[in-house]
Write a structure and sequence with these properties.
Blueprint: H1 12-16, H2 18-27, H3 29-43, E1 50-54, H4 60-67, E2 71-76, H5 79-89, E3 94-97, E4 112-118, H6 128-137, E5 138-149, H7 151-158, E6 167-175, E7 178-186, H8 189-198, E8 201-207, H9 215-218, H10 220-228, E9 232-239
Parallel strand pairs: 1-2, 1-4, 2-3, 4-5
Antiparallel strand pairs: 5-9, 6-7, 8-9
The protein binds S-adenosylmethionine (SAM).
Length: 243
């Protein structure tokens, strides 16, 4: 069983406002024009690949992976999110309720070629248990593609005195016309890469992309923000072959 030094952040946003978050995420500039396009670009050609989608929420990214020919298993800790994902994709993908701080027993050893984790890892205090488990789930040489809040954004936004610490912080986000408090772990850049290295992942790409160009027409303010500030950090890493 994994041992975490801190508690896994639990957010009412994804539990009680699942529908509102699903609607928001489907069209929001940060999700639809920045995060998902960047994740899909790093994932590359997924046709025929077995993909595990961590923190799949209502399955918007999963649906785009399925449309590109992937066989997708999505997992999320929130049962309502999993219901929404199942309603969205029917039998075109498999969705399970799973807590990422616990073993992913529904995934056989070497059962997936690619893991995507869009905007979920910052809810975990320590990644070692999960990354070790992903090393089991992935085929040797398999890929992990993820996005997290950019460490510079969280540090600056939170105005915290100690950049180098990893700490649980909170923000208020406007979702579906209401303000919802969300808690997550703010961590320095070095902690992101130390955890990958310690769990046997080799980094292939670090990306700080601009949003899709069409956002400049649809939402000039959001385009300006996402084009000029560090908002999310994107990483692609390989699971090294087990001995
Ligand atoms: C920002 S959303 C992810 C967006 C999603 N990837 C998409 O493309 O729409 C974060 C999701 O991670 C899930 N989550 C957060 N912490 C989790 C944990 N410890 N285990 C499993 N799922 C978690 C939440 O329930 C939520 O659905």
């Amino acid at each position: 069983m994994f041992v975490y030094r801190g508690r896994v952040a639990h957010n009412t946003l994804y539990e009680q406002f699942a529908e509102a978050y699903a609607r928001h995420s489907e069209h929001s500039p940060a999700n639809a024009y920045y995060d998902r396009p960047a994740i899909l670009a790093l994932a590359g050609d997924v046709s025929g690949r077995r993909v595990l989608d961590l923190g799949c929420a209502a399955g918007v990214l999963s649906e785009q992976l399925v449309a590109r020919g992937a066989t997708v298993t999505g997992v999320d800790r929130e049962p309502r999110m999993v219901e929404l994902a199942r309603a969205r994709l029917g039998d075109r993908a498999r969705f399970e309720v799973a807590e990422l701080s616990e073993p992913l027993d529904m995934v056989p050893t070497a059962g997936v070629d690619l893991v995507v984790a869009s905007l979920v890892l910052h809810y975990l205090p320590d990644w070692h248990g999960l990354l070790t488990e992903l090393g089991r789930c992935l085929v040797p040489g398999g890929e992990l593609v993820f996005s997290v809040h950019h460490p510079a954004a969280d540090w600056q936004g939170q105005g915290r005195p100690d950049y180098l610490s990893t700490e649980l912080v909170s923000e208020t986000w406007p979702v579906g016309g209401q303000d919802v408090e969300v808690s997550f772990y703010r961590r320095p850049l070095s902690a992101v890469f130390e955890q990958l290295h310690r769990a046997g992942f080799v980094v292939d790409t670090v990306d700080e992309p601009r949003p899709l160009p069409e956002l400049s027409r649809l939402s000039p303010d959001a385009y300006a923000e996402l084009s000029t500030k560090p908002v999310f950090l994107f990483v692609k890493a390989f699971a090294v072959a087990r001995p």
